[in-house]
Design goal:
The chain is mainly α. The longest helix has 21 residues. α6 crosses α7. It is built from seven helices and five strands, in the order αββααααααβββ. β4 and β5 form a beta hairpin.
Length: about 200
Amino acid sequence: MAAAALTAGIALTACSTPVEAGAAAVVGKERIAAQDLNARVQELQTAMQTAKINPAEIGIPLNQAVLYRMVDSSRSLQVAAASGVQVTEAEIDQFVAAAEQQAQGMSVNEQLMRSAVPPSIGRTYLRSIISVQKLIQKFGGGTDQAAQERATEPLGKEFQKFKVTYNPRYGAFDAQQQGFVDTGRFGKLTATTQPQTPQG
């Protein structure tokens, strides 16, 4: 999906400055509390167990994957707000219907869980995806591949206004490879890009 491809390239560069105590990450002016992250990870673990989804499908530890998603969502929504882009509940409903039709019956909730998005923040995450689609339209002047390419540079500059700082306790984030890398604390990991996202 164009939005996911674009954010994978520009939305998750990270700073090396220290994060404040108790924060898993700081995104622009928003703080993602470690306590909130832990709650979301536990929620996802329980939901995946109920849905009989193997967490190993994610490819990296759940705390890293969920943090990645929370950072991605927060940053995209902050950029959208600063750019005057809004998403209605009806647009989220339309996205859900389209994604479920394309997935041939798999619910968006299950798709999101398989992408390391806890159910309680599912609609917020979908709002961020749709927001990026709208930002591409705004900065690229369309919805096709050419529009995405035109939007990359100006939209990238907007994303860079909202810096991201990860707490190193969750692993080292490699901005060049767009993923967490093995630091010896989480077992053998390779640089991992974000999991697949539901497409609408």
